[in-house]
Amino acid sequence: MVGVAVCALGCAVARSPAAAPARPFRFATDTFAFINESHWRYVTDPATGERVWSAQPVYFALHCAGVVRAARQFLVNAQFDPTAAPVDDATALRLARAVMARGPRSTVATKPPVVIPGYTGLRDFSAAHEQVLKDEMLRDWRSVLPRGDWRIVVPALPVEQARTADALYRKVRAGTPAIIRVFRFPVMTINHAVLLYEAAERAGDLEFTAYDPNDVAGPIVVRFDRTAGTFLFPPRDYFDGGPIKVYEIYAGMLS
Hints:
- The chain contains 7 helices and 10 strands.
- The chain has helices at about 1-15, 25-30, 65-75, 90-100, 120-130, 130-140, 160-175, and strands spanning about 40-45, 50-55, 80, 115, 180-185, 190-200, 205-210, 220-225, 230-235, 240-250.
- By secondary structure, the chain is α+β, with helices and mostly antiparallel strands.
- The strands form 3 sheets. The protein has a 6-stranded antiparallel β-barrel. The protein has a two-stranded antiparallel ribbon with strand order 1-2. A two-stranded parallel ribbon has the order 3-4.
């Protein structure tokens, strides 16, 4: 079964880049104003100076994949009209549902855009209707368990990760944001999802600019180290940084 899965994974990363959305992804306007919260985060113990886990109460958590999936759906399927009057919560919910009902794997619009009056983009739309959007995503199981998560148990060898990095680089450079699962297995010190929207090659390595749904302050950089054959994730308050495994989600029949 693992052999079959590895073959399927190899086929998945070899496909041609998907078509690009009509416009590029911009962090300032195309991200949510709120974050996907983390139940646990690293803090510095004042007594010892060591980094330790600390539990925190949260309301909107475990929906990292759903947040970045929805961000791409709004990019592809929504058209914001800042010249019109802002909508109320009921209308906002109806419009958001219309956007998020579109195929999460489509990177180009297949229907006319959903027009959202009163806002310049997803950032100020979600700031105005935060609770409505959070509640809607909380009721959606796809925000917690995308169908591609079976791949966590598939061995991710350096050669396979190099193919994944090259495929993601071609896709993102062509203008199509890619959604990836970042994880460690079997010790799950990180199990997260981010959206890649810019890519560059520096000193032979690949660098991806990403939207981390746990952070609205600014983008992060996920790097692929060609020499080590591994992806590297930056330090965050929920992860101290370092090597990770990566595969793409919301990108095909198996993901």
